[in-house]
Amino acid sequence: MKTIQWVVGCLLAAALAGALVGWRNVGQLRAECAALRAQLDAQQAQGMATSEAGDRQRDQELQRLRGEAQEVVRLRGEVSQLRGGARETDRLRSDNQRLQSEIQQLRGITAAGAAPSSPPAQGSSDQFPKESWAFSGYASPEAALVSAIWAMKQGDPKAYAASLAPEEQARMAQAWANKSEADIAAKHQKDVSVITGVRILDRQTISPEETQMNVYIEGVGRMDKVSMRRIGDEWRFGGFIRK
């Protein structure tokens, strides 16, 4: 009987010891689990903070790029305005120089006692009213002059350029460098729209290759001197002779 009680006691002691060891292991596992959960929570919080910081940085970078894009658009607009202003300035400067030249010429005519509004009478062969303008070829200085004026009236810059002497072609090509063909045509038609006719007053032979003519521009009451150049067997308009 004592032996049985002793055995039972040993078994109970062993079971109690095992239970104590199991509880200790369970507590340790629970502590480790809690530590791991805390570590996971900390990593998740750190990841969220890093993600938010990255989002903020991307937003800031996107805003900066948008601002730079808007600045580029604004600068392009200013450059376009400046280019347009430069072209307008060149056009106004050219018109101003032309007007000053015409004023000086009119002053010289007035000082010499000429009367632009009452030019000397000439023969009908030297009068070219506007309704008679047509392509007249280049066989004579008069025909070449009318052909050039007709090309301006038609708004045909290519035909006008073909009526010019080489030196005048080069000069006009430089003057037209920044103008479109449509702009040149419109300018020519505007220039001749107020002219009602052209009258040749006199001629002066400078050389076998050049004849100068004083012409009266009807409709605007202006007198001009022009140079006509012989190119081979044909004549071409050599430009206005300005003082």
Secondary-structure map:
Elements (H helix, E strand, L loop, with lengths): L1 H110 L15 E3 L11 H14 L2 H6 L3 H10 L5 H13 L3 E11 L2 E9 L3 E10 L2 E7 L3
Antiparallel strand pairs: 1-2, 2-3, 3-4, 4-5
Helix pairs in contact: 2-5
Core attributes:
rod-shaped, five-stranded antiparallel sheet, alpha+beta, 5 strands, 243 residues, Nuclear Transport Factor 2, Chain: A
Textual characterization of the structure:
The chain has a five-stranded antiparallel beta sheet with strand order 1-2-3-4-5. Helix 2 crosses helix 5 (181-193). Strand 3 (210-218) and strand 4 (222-231) form a beta hairpin. The protein has two domains: 1-114; 119-240, Nuclear Transport Factor 2, Chain: A, CATH 3.10.450. The protein is built from five helices and five strands; from the N terminus they run αβααααββββ. With 243 residues, the chain is of the alpha+beta class. 63% of the residues lie in helices and 16% in strands.
Helix and strand pattern = HEHHHHEEEE
> What is the beta-strand fraction?
15-25%
**Averaged pLDDT, please?**
79
Structural class: alpha+beta
In brief:
Helix content is 63%, strand content 16%. By secondary structure, the chain is an alpha+beta fold. It has a 5-stranded antiparallel sheet with strand order 1-2-3-4-5.
